[in-house]
Amino acid sequence: MAWKAASIIAVAWLPMATSTASSGDLEPPEPHGAHPMATGMPPRDERALFQSDMALMAGMTPRDPMGGMPMPDWQFMTMGIARLQYNHQGGPSGDDAVESVNWSMVMLQRDVGRGRLTLMMMNSLEPVTFQKAGSPQLFQTGETFEGRPIVDRQHPHDLFMNLSATYRAPFGGKGAYWAQAALRGEPALGPTAFMHRASAGENPTAALAHHLQDATHITDDVITAGIGWGRISAEASAFHGAEPDEGRWDLDFGRLDSIAGRVKLELPRGWSAQVSHGFLNEPEALVEGDTRRTTASVHYGAAGDRPLAATLLWGRNREEHGTFDSVLLEGAYQLTPDDQAYARAEHVDKDLHLLETKGLAAHSEARGGQEEQAVGIRALTVGYLREVRRWSAVRAGLGADVTLYDVPPQLRSTYGESPVSFHVFLRVRWDRGHGH
């Protein structure tokens, strides 16, 4: 299965990237980290971090809702990332895999009336490039496989990660408004998802607190409206609250039964912040009850336009059977145009009995309607990436990272006293901006 995944990723993804830039392409390479929308604009710092699609959208602030350039005709952009990696998770609960973490995005934009219409589609082949039960990851929980909760694995992302249409327009001298309709999208809850943050864009691992912070980045049937003035904006969403089911190839339509709201603040000198709260109706397939999620985060360099980016993030799930908290600090630093170091430290509350038993039946019987017993998990990841080859729109790099854990005494018989996990990977990243 592992080498099947490797062949699939090579055949299915690399042609998408090299179709716009082959090894014989005579175009000079764009500056490292150049913003795809910056065609014809002065180059940025050559050590600026990569800007993802979400950073692009976030860059359209109330003060600049049109993204800095006119688009009278349809403009096309594509970008994505694929990693072929060896994943080792240590200790008695660990596992090994050869797999691929990947996503791609295509976006169409044009000016319509006084505003701009953006059509976006994002996809992932992880349903076939991960093991069926998911990517091995110690202490990770969330979603289901074969009717049981996923434990010690990160679930694969769905084939369709985003299918959305967004319209945004300016008003007054400093204001903007926007509206989005998405068959699958991201409601106004939490920060930018981990895989799209400048502070974690080269880190192949999902945060252990993913389901307390930004798991709603793949949500069905989302309607969002927002308004902003100057450096502050507010938005609200109605959406279907259930997490994606085990069918990774389709959409999971449902009624608009959940709501969320978020306030963002753009601060001087590269700083920004957000606070959000949401009510999720019956989000988990196997556990009854609603969830109230609250997040707050402070970011430096979130736009990816400088060598350093950092995120400090707090997230809480208040459920019928208990309250769970998490804190995350992560950062990335571009030492040279070809060398990046990244790190993540986090503390997250997990359900003790679920980690011990790995199964819901025993977990439910032991709970007996009482609150779940939370136990704090601490993890520290440090990693490094080296760019090894560039084409006009494609970059290839080699990377590695290692994760250490502080295991609570109650779980040392299950996980060992000091398990060590690591990844070694080949990363291919591509982007092709407007005007091509």
Structural summary, described in words:
- This protein has 436 residues and is mainly β.
- The strands form 2 sheets. A 16-stranded antiparallel β-barrel has the order 1-2-3-6-7-8-9-10-11-12-13-14-15-16-17-18.
Q: What labels would you give this structure?
A:
436 residues, mainly beta, Porin, 16-stranded antiparallel barrel, two-stranded antiparallel sheet, disordered N terminus
In short:
The protein has helices at 2-12, 14-18, 53-58, 126-129, 210-213, 352-357, 360-367, 412-415; strands spanning 75-88, 96-112, 115-123, 135-145, 148-154, 160-171, 175-185, 219-229, 232-239, 258-266, 271-280, 291-300, 308-319, 322-336, 339-351, 374-390, 394-406, 420-432. The chain has 436 residues and is mainly beta. The protein has a single domain (2-432), classed as Porin (Beta Barrel).
Return residue spans where pLDDT drops below 50 for at least 5 consecutive residues. Answer: 1-42, 361-367
Strand-pairing-aware structural class: mainly beta
Amount of beta strand: over 45%
- From the alpha carbons, calculate the radius of gyration and give it in angstroms: 21 Å
Instruction: Categorize the overall geometry.
Output: globular
Query: How many domains?
Result: 1
Reported for the largest beta sheet, the result is: 16 strands, antiparallel, barrel
